[in-house]
Amino acid sequence: MTADDLELARGLLTDGFSRTADALPHLLADLSPADLLWQPDPGSNSIAWLTWHLTRVQDDHLAGVGRVDQVWSTQGWADRFNLPYPRASIGFGQVAAEVAAFGVSDRERLLGYHAATQAMTRDVLAAMDHADFDRVVDERWDPPVTAAVRLVSVVDDTAQHTGQIGYLRGLLQRRG
């Protein structure tokens, strides 16, 4: 990887992550607390839960890639959210009752946590060098997951959840 390739990779990833960060304020704008927690049917994800989950995944995974602390714990977000889950939870594998127990309907808190995570993400990406992209970050998979693969996976995950939030917002608007 040349210096130009490194700069291109950083730039593309930064752009990919910034798309969710740019979209979330618009997607959550003017939604009431009840709207943020609305589930189209039992067991469905709410806009608030999806926002928290996509941010927790980004925080957890980017902190791992960058070998830095998660903003969830170091900046007090876990305490501000005060969720009925284990502190390290990122939402993977939660059952319907756990998703329904998510009660944070404060748009500014959701967006604040995402903004703090996005700032950490930019710092991690800016600090990455050539070797960082090839470094194995998760040996639980075959083949083991490199930082480059993990980063693309998280961009994909956040994009999918951002789309789900947009879809839920559309369903809310159709309900009147």
Account of the 3D structure:
The chain has 176 residues and is an all-alpha fold. The protein contains 9 helices and 2 strands. Helix 3 (47-66) packs antiparallel against helix 9 (147-175). It starts with a helix and ends with a helix.
Distance between the termini: 52 Å
Strand element count: 2
SSE ordering: HHHHHHHHEEH
Low-confidence stretches: none
Output the number of helix runs.
9
- Name the overall outline: globular
Helix content: 55-70%
Largest sheet: 2 strands, antiparallel
Computed structural class: mainly alpha
Query: What value does the average pLDDT take?
Result: 96
Rg from alpha-carbon coordinates: 17 Å
Approximate strand percentage: under 5%
Q: Give the strand line-up of the largest sheet.
A: 1-2
Oligomer: single chain
Tags for this model:
single chain; 176 residues; mainly alpha; two-stranded antiparallel sheet
Helix and strand arrangement:
Elements: H1 3-28, H2 33-37, H3 47-66, H4 71-74, H5 77-81, H6 96-100, H7 107-127, H8 130-134, E1 136-138, E2 145-146, H9 147-175
Helix pairs in contact: 1-7, 1-9, 3-7, 3-9
Short description:
Helix content is 68%, strand content 3%. It has 176 residues and is mainly alpha-helical. α1 (3-28) runs antiparallel to α7 (107-127), α1 (3-28) runs parallel beside α9 (147-175) and α3 runs antiparallel to α9 (147-175).
